[in-house]
């Protein structure tokens, strides 16, 4: 194993992804990293989903976040493969990692859709893979999967993927809760004008509504963007909406 | 809107000259008409400096919103998405505007009836002819059907017509 540090269980690529994931500043960036990790280990497909309950009947209802081809997900639900899925059944009842080989996994499905399931996943090169159950500090449990054309035979790769799965979900949970509106200390006027921009109002319209000059309005908006750490107004408006600072 | 200068090979390096529809005798305008003949394809543009967003009529219809002129309400657009997908849409715009890059997403809209509709959107960064930075792209609704054939009742293509009806 390569190592230029005393941490012999980590190699260079591992350290890089480790740091990148922990410093991801947005969900979007994190998901891109997840795709890179998956690709690096020859498993180009990843997914993050909550653990299914008995009420779930479709894959899309799980709020799955993945880089799976959209046709795979829609075709999966169209074929109604969810309800008798061996993976779904496993995730409902066990926290142990589950490796899958499509040919074996879908044999003897209760719904007799063995061929449909095998063909669908083979078609998209998702012949093998692994699902990990992961948990965040709130006790919420999710499943992270990596899939691709080849079987995972290297135990070290398995261990790394397990580590990354936990790290990604942990970071995802942090990113979904860390954005605190009060942190940015935006003034009411700054929020009001950002709100108006988001509704499609131009500087001239905001100026007319507020009785302030366009220059003054622009200053408020520029300050708001700076406080949010954004260089452009569209970025600031999007971020303010995402953080529920404006609605 | 004139699509004649729309470069189909943008972001796809290494493609041949015939990747341009004009090279085989089809203008970009005509190609867009063909692409949007059956399913709505909307074009959108977001100005980075002003924060204002503009849509063609088709985007309004895809979102299930009333068509109107001028800049659109971003909160109304975001509210049309599935609650679990709203943050991802905004993060795509945030990332693309901050890093001056592009994005692609496939996410869900929730109709008032409760129906879930899947949409695909691509966005790209550019500096427009007036030197202003913007994101622009398209959005389309797509069917979950793996195989589907639809025939138009009559030709809807009128050469030279304003296909965007903006």
Structure summarized in a few sentences:
The complex is a heterodimer of chains A (247) and B (166). By secondary structure, chain A is α+β, with helices and mostly antiparallel strands. Chain A has helices spanning 12-23, 27-40, 70-78, 86-93, 102-105, 114-123, 155-178, 188-198, 203-210, 214-227, 233-242; strands at 45-50, 65-66, 98-101, 128-135, 141-148.
Tell me the layout of helices and strands:
The complex is a heterodimer of chains A (247) and B (166).
Chain A: H1 12-23, H2 27-40, E1 45-50, E2 65-66, H3 70-78, H4 86-93, E3 98-101, H5 102-105, H6 114-123, E4 128-135, E5 141-148, H7 155-178, H8 188-198, H9 203-210, H10 214-227, H11 233-242
Helix pairs in contact in A: 1-7, 2-7, 8-10, 8-11, 9-10, 10-11
Chain B: H1 28-35, E1 41-47, E2 53-55, H2 57-63, H3 74-79, H4 86-99, E3 103-110, E4 116-127, E5 133-141
Antiparallel strand pairs in B: 1-2, 1-5, 3-4, 4-5
What does this structure look like?
The complex is a heterodimer of chains A (247) and B (166). Chain A is elongated and about 70 Å long. Chain A is 50% helix and 11% strand. Chain A is α+β, with helices and mostly antiparallel strands and 247 residues long. Chain A has helices at 12-23, 27-40, 70-78, 86-93, 102-105, 114-123, 155-178, 188-198, 203-210, 214-227, 233-242; strands at residues 45-50, 65-66, 98-101, 128-135, 141-148. Chain A has a five-stranded antiparallel beta sheet, with helices on both faces. Chain B is an alpha+beta fold. In chain B, 21% of the residues lie in helices and 23% in strands. Chain B contains four helices and five strands, in the order H-E-E-H-H-H-E-E-E. Chain B has helices at 28-35, 57-63, 74-79, 86-99; strands at 41-47, 53-55, 103-110, 116-127, 133-141. Chain B has a five-stranded antiparallel beta sheet with strand order 2-1-5-4-3. The N and C termini of chain B lie close together (7 Å). Mean pLDDT of chain B is 79; it is low at 1-13 and 155-166. Chain A binds chain B through residues 26-29, 60, 63, 65, 70-71, 74-75, 77-78, 176, 197-203, 221, 230-239, 241-242, 246-247, and chain B through 46-53, 70-75, 78, 84, 86-88, 90-95, 97-98, 103, 106, 108, 116, 118, 120, 133, 135, 142, 144-146.
């Amino acid at each position: 194993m390569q190592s230029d540090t005393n941490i012999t269980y980590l190699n260079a690529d591992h350290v890089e992804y480790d740091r990148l994931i922990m410093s991801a500043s947005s969900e979007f960036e994190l998901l891109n990293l997840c795709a890179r990790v998956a690709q690096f280990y020859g498993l180009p497909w990843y997914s993050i989903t909550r653990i299914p309950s008995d009420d779930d009947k479709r894959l899309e209802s799980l709020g799955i976040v993945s880089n799976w081809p959209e046709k795979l997900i829609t075709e999966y639900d169209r074929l109604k493969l969810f309800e008798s899925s061996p993976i779904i059944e496993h995730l409902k009842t066990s926290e142990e990692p589950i490796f899958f080989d499509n040919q074996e996994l879908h044999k003897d499905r209760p719904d007799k859709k063995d061929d449909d399931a095998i063909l669908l996943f083979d078609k998209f090169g998702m012949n093998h893979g692994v699902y990990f159950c992961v948990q965040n500090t709130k006790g919420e449990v999710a499943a992270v999967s990596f899939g691709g054309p080849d079987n995972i035979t290297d135990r070290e790769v398995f261990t790394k993927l397990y580590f990354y799965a936990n790290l990604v979900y942990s970071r995802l949970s942090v990113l979904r809760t860390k954005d605190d509106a009060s942190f940015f200390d935006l003034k009411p006027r700054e929020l009001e004008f950002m709100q108006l921009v988001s509704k499609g109002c131009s500087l001239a319209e905001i100026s007319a509504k507020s009785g302030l000059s366009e220059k003054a309005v622009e200053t408020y908006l520029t300050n708001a963007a700076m406080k949010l750490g954004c260089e452009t107004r569209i970025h600031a408006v999007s971020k303010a909406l995402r953080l529920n600072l404006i609605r | 809107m004139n699509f004649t200068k729309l470069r189909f090979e943008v972001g796809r390096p290494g493609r041949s000259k015939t990747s341009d529809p004009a090279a085989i005798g089809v203008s970009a305008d005509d190609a867009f008409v063909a692409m949007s003949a059956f399913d709505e394809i909307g074009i959108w543009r977001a100005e980075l400096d002003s924060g204002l967003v503009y849509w063609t009529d088709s985007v309004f219809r895809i979102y299930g919103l009333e068509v109107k002129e001028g800049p659109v309400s971003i909160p109304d657009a975001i509210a049309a998405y599935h609650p679990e997908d709203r943050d991802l849409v905004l993060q795509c715009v945030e990332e693309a505007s901050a890093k001056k890059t592009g994005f692609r997403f496939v996410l869900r809209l929730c109709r008032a009836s409760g129906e879930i509709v899947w949409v695909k959107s691509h966005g790209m960064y550019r500096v427009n002819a007036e030197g202003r930075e913007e994101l622009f792209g398209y959005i389309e609704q797509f069917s979950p059907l793996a195989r589907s054939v639809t025939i138009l009742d009559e030709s809807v293509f009128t050469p030279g017509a304003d296909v965007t009806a903006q």
